[in-house]
Structures are given as structure tokens and as C-alpha cells.
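Meet my pick.
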Amino acid sequence: MVRKAKGIGMVVDEMLKSTIGVTNTEDLIIEAVRDLVKDEIKSQIKQKINEDPQLKAEMKQAIKDFLDAKMREGYALFKLTKCTAELGMRIVPEDMKAQLSKDMAEFIEKEVTQVIEKM
């Protein structure tokens, strides 16, 4: 069997795929250009914000308020989930409670482990 020699483009493409997990070189270039465009947009926005101290202070407070609201929302969802689990435990027949508790504990452990691994 005769093997065809790989072109330099294919070799570079394979090296990029194996080292950084990119599907092809074109995707890498497109992603890099997107990042450059985003960086330039961010730079121009920061410049405009920094030119107006009042706008900068207002923006800073708005972001603080937004993050605070998101944290409150997350905590409210947690409390709703907890209440739902407690309600479920009260509704479940006695002979199923032990198994349900075990299954819930395993599920929660698995989910928390996945969240921690992503951090």
C-alpha cells in the first residue's frame, strides 16, 4: 500500500487539533478574530465610561445591584428546591422514604461534585 505524503497544512492542522483540541485551523482563526473584536469593543466601552465619572459611578452601582439581585435569586431558588424536597419527603409513603433519601443524597453528591470540578 502506498501512502500519500501529507501537505504542510494538514500536518499543522493535525498538530493544532492534538495540542489544543481545535477541530480545524479555520475555527481557531475565527475564534481569535472574535476575541480581538470583543476586546476592541470592551476597550471602547471602558474608554467612554472612564470619560464620565458620574456614568462610571452609576454603572458600578448598577452592576453591584445586578449581582446582588442574582445572588438573591439563586438563594431563593435554593430555598424553593429545599422546600420541594421536604414536601416530597412528606408525601412519599413511609416504606419509600429510606430509598428516596439515599437516592437524593447520591444525586446531590454527584451534582455538587460536578459543580466543584468545573470551578
User: Anything to note?
Assistant: Helices lie at 8-20, 25-50, 53-91, 94-118.
